[in-house]
Amino acid sequence: MSSPLFWSQPLKYCAWAARERPAYFWSVVVGATGPALMPIVPPIRHMLGDVDPAPVPVTYPGTFGRQLNRALVEENLRYDREREREFSN
């Protein structure tokens, strides 16, 4: 028996592929369900009480960032005062 062509008889082809080449057939079926379930699964997760994890920190925790920020603020204030003096004269 020759294999049916997919575009002319898709259901018959799927039945043939499931019987004659099950590994290929089920690989395609499982692979196609992933993208299909992407918009469906997150709302179900949230309804069941699952919460998204906290975002990963992008800075190192500690006082260095605060000290650096304070130094930058002071430097900007100093620069602004100097500019005001230049323009006021």
From TrEMBL:
InterPro entries: Nuo9.5. It comes from the Eukaryota. PANTHER family: OXIDOREDUCTASE 9.5 KDA SUBUNIT, PUTATIVE (AFU_ORTHOLOGUE AFUA_5G08980)-RELATED (PTHR38488). This is NADH dehydrogenase. It comes from Trichoderma harzianum. The lineage of its organism: Eukaryota, Fungi, Dikarya, Ascomycota, Pezizomycotina.
